[in-house]
Amino acid sequence: MTASTERAGAVLAERADAESRLLPPALLTARRLASAFAPGRHGRRRPGQGEEFWQFRPARHGDARRSLDWRRSARSDRLFVREREAQIPHSLMIWVDTSRSMGYFSGEHPPKVHCASVTALALALLAVRGEEKVGLMNFGAKPGSGQAQVERMAYFLSEADRDREFGEPPPIELAGGRQHVLISDFLGPWERIEFYLREALGAEGAILQILDPSEMRFPFAGRTVFLSAGGSVQHETFQARGIRSGYLEALEERRSRLASLAGSLGWQFRRHLTTSPYAPTLLWLLGALERTG
User: Fold this and answer.
1) Model pTM?
2) Which of 23, 50, 131, 196 has its CA 20 to 30 A from that of 82?
3) Are residues 154 and 61 in the same domain?
């Protein structure tokens, strides 16, 4: 390697490092997370009308004779059908709750909104890697393709106004080939959450609830002042431990309601803690979208 080549490489590395420092932190974490997954399409392929080979499957009653693959069938005592991969244009729409409630954190781990943003952006990166379009439902924008689209999503999430105390799912467009992922703590008024989610009947998607560990454990005792995320509600108690069981029952009821509602829509549901690793949740999301597709 010549000295000029080394200098050029150093300049490029310095420029890349400077540009990376300008990117939102959530996007940098999301890129590292997505890079750990194998390249290529990410599990949302499906059989259908197309040109590319998908798989062989055993023939079933009602299959057309012309769909049988005689060469594959000759190597077995069963008949096999050659399926092709569906070439339907897919798009993935994601809602990340950026309300004040999502800004809560109780320790050194990041706020809920940061975890939600990292998960959403990593999922979007995998989607565009699979040649799908992605978009944020937060501002009603149309889905787009490529890395630039994910960067636009990241900048929006990093600069979003946290004007609401609790988030509410946005309207869901019932469009063919479109799937949805809703990420929130879902701790707002249940009536509003249920109303918007029931409007999603007929759509495809998954629900991810993100909570801080203290919201799961309720590690409070003695005199405690509870203040809502927006500061509009304040409650003081001298026996915090005495309300712990009631709080945990209400939290479990919320989880049960969310899971039941997701099931009634044909959607998948999961809970994620901000102290948990991202990879298992991202892998679950990929599988959930495949199951609902």
Assistant:
1) 0.76
2) 131
3) no
